Amino acid sequence: xxxxxxxxxxxxxxxxxxxxxxxxxxxxxxxxxxxxxxxxxxxxxxxxxxxxxxxxxxxxxxxxxxxxxxxxxxxxxxxxxxxxxxxxxxxxxxxxxxxxxxxxxxxxxxxxxxxxxxxxxxxxxxxxxxxxxxxxxxxxxxxxxxxxxxxxxxxxxxxxxxxxxxxxxxxxxxxxxxxxxxxxxxxxxxxxxxxxxxxxxxxxxxxxxxxxxxxxxxxxxxxxxxxxxxxxxxxxxxxxxxxxxxxxxxxxxxxxxxxxxxxxxxxxxxxxxxxxxxxxxxxxxxxxxxxxxxxxxxxxxxxxxxxxxxxxxxxxxxxxxxxxxxxxxxxxxxxxxxxxxxxxxxxxxxxxxxxxxxxxxxxxxxxxxxxxxxxxxxxxxxxxxxxxxxxxxxxxxxxxxxxxxxxxxx
Length: 410
Fold this sequence. Notes:
The chain has helices spanning 3-6, 18-28, 33-40, 45-52, 67-83, 111-117, 124-135, 137-150, 154-167, 174-189, 198-217, 221-235, 250-256, 260-268, 277-289, 293-306, 312-315, 321-331, 342-349, 368-382, 387-396, 398-409; strands at residues 31-32, 87-88, 120-122. By secondary structure, the chain is mostly helical. It folds into 3 domains: 1-129, no CATH class; 136-235, no CATH class; 250-409, no CATH class. It has a 3-stranded antiparallel β-sheet with strand order 1-3-2. The longest helix is centred in the middle third of the chain and has 20 residues, at 198-217. It is globular, with a radius of gyration of 24 Å.
């Protein structure tokens, strides 16, 4: 699917505001244009990996949005970064392939767009500390070690780690780095998880390796951990789901990469996926990151039907702002509606969703109230007599019918 097909207007792109930039700085120590593109799903992580391995000519080719739209967002990000007092620190990205580590990767054939994509902004104090860090011998070696681990280059990481050990034998993170190097070697020796050991591998990855990587590598932890999560996903079931152990399904590991297309395939591989809130929420999140907002909205609405005992706000914390605003509106209604009727009320507020109900590849709400609201809205769109459709909705929920009639008057 082309960028033009997936994202048609700047307003449909994820926000790049002060809050988004502040959160990224807090989590990774910097705001970078590429990190935002990855987090937003505008550059799918597998495509990013291809680019880092020389399989894609330039990063711009992997962006799933019209250039005018993402350029506009990155310029907004630039203005917000300046407003936050951040300092620009343009970043160079290098090839991950062994023997190509000194080769800078192309961001765009256009110099202006390339400069935007290379943007990285840090706090002034952090930039000064980073310069001092690189000026010190051990600090520079540690920086190189981060790069080697993120590039999945175990040979280089082992050599650099040994150099760090010689230069700073009392370095507080030395043991952690040695563990990360050993784990990289482990992945090389056993690229496929032996039968019967997947749960043991998952425990080691989740409880030991992932926390170490996030603490030491910070913004580069995802690149280091992605092969481990992908390897684990290959060992976990796709077509069978155990609600007692929801993380033992491939979609869980694929979310950690993140590979949202793979998450979608794995969830849909489970025959009764539409009956499990966990799988529905994973699917909705994947669709959200794949720039399919209407399908994501409908999948989250199906979640609310499947778990009516849970307030909608608790089921959609990671939803797009548009949906989350609807949830807050629903919970603030003067006439309180049953949570199981959220999907029907959402359709009333977002009638454009009607055009997405006949998709066969993603689940949609199926509750009686939702179906009655859909029929009423379709009847109205045809200009036909609404009496029977209104009576049907009245029998299910008088409050929903009143909401429909009140909506008509506004």
